[in-house]
Amino acid sequence: MRIFGRSLLTSLLTTALDFGTLVGLTELARVNYVLATWIGTVVGSLANFTINKAWAFSARDAPAVPALGRFVVVQAGASGLHTAGVWALTRFGRLPYPVSKAAVAAVVYLVWNYPLNRWFVFNPRHRRRSATQSPRAT
Known about the structure:
This protein has five helices and no strands. By secondary structure, it is mainly alpha-helical.
């Protein structure tokens, strides 16, 4: 439960960055809300990886490059789900885009981001394997 709580706090913080980027770009810079949704997910994900690695999943000792590679795969899926979900709920559900974003963010976190970050990106099994592998002889 401790990992989930830390991950949830991290997600709330980085979702605030994501949401702020979305609203700022849409309302102030007049960027289309669909593009702004995608940009917001990228901004939020940059902070999300760093905080998750160092604090939420306590993976400071894990090699950063392999974890970052796995994270990029997960984040690409999350960005696609966010963007498509916000577009669909706003266009077909006729919800204001901020409401669509809040609903999509909650669902994507629970069914995509948290499980994949926990079991794929920051899984301790990956840390042990990476730390114990010796360099190949050339």
